[in-house]
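ADP/GDP-polyphosphate phosphotransferase
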Amino acid sequence: MFTKEDLMQFDTRKKLVALAKKKGIKVKKTLKRTKYEEQLRSLQIELAFLQQHIEKNKLRVAVIFEGRDAAGKGGSIKRFVEHLNPHSSGVVALAKPTEVERGQWYFQRYIEVLPNRGEIKFFDRSWYNRAVVEPVMGFCTHEQHKTFMAQVPNFEHMLHEDGIKIIKFWFDISKEEQKKRFDDRKNNPLKEWKFSPVDLKAQELWDENTKYKERMFTETHTAYSPWTIVETNDKETARLESLRHVLSQFDYKGKGSSGASLLTDPNVIYRYFRKPKTFDL
């Protein structure tokens, strides 16, 4: 272990790493975490600049987070909003629809929480519940799903024409990583609240979710509202890359002045490309 004297005599990370090697102290994990926190801080500074740009220019921005259960959507959203001005930003995480809402047009309750001028909103799941989760879990009928799929491109085109910038993320992890995260939730009293009845069936219905996910991409990926895939089993990488992608979509005062790298890793984050449909629903 390092002594107090060790820590006091070095003023650079390089010297400290050299001493760690000499003493046989493993610091790889600690250094990785430190590097992550440095990058995160710089990207959050950039995000603050972006928020000022959104406020000044009265923009309306909606960032949608969809993906596999336990893929890290909530953790990423937390890093987006934790240092933003809450008066012009917010998280949308709607509960299951009420009896009244079930009798309304499906998109109606989402329209009510869209960003106003000068706001950026982060959707922890969205209207795309009806594209994957609801049909897989039997929460909607075949006809309701079919109607949704026919309407959503037009709905998003109307939002686009009205000036709302929509950024759609799909967070993806491996089946093995999902199970590992579920087990972690079940065995951690501080995370147990995250484990839902839907999660219980996620592994069992993995292939069914994949089928509906692919149809969603094929029919709702458009030039004005494309899907961006975030594919990694590393939570910290997913957070940094999704931040970089959002920042890359805008030109704002002070861009890059934090020293943060704003180039995304194409092996982690990429735009969906249509593939031939290989199934029927």
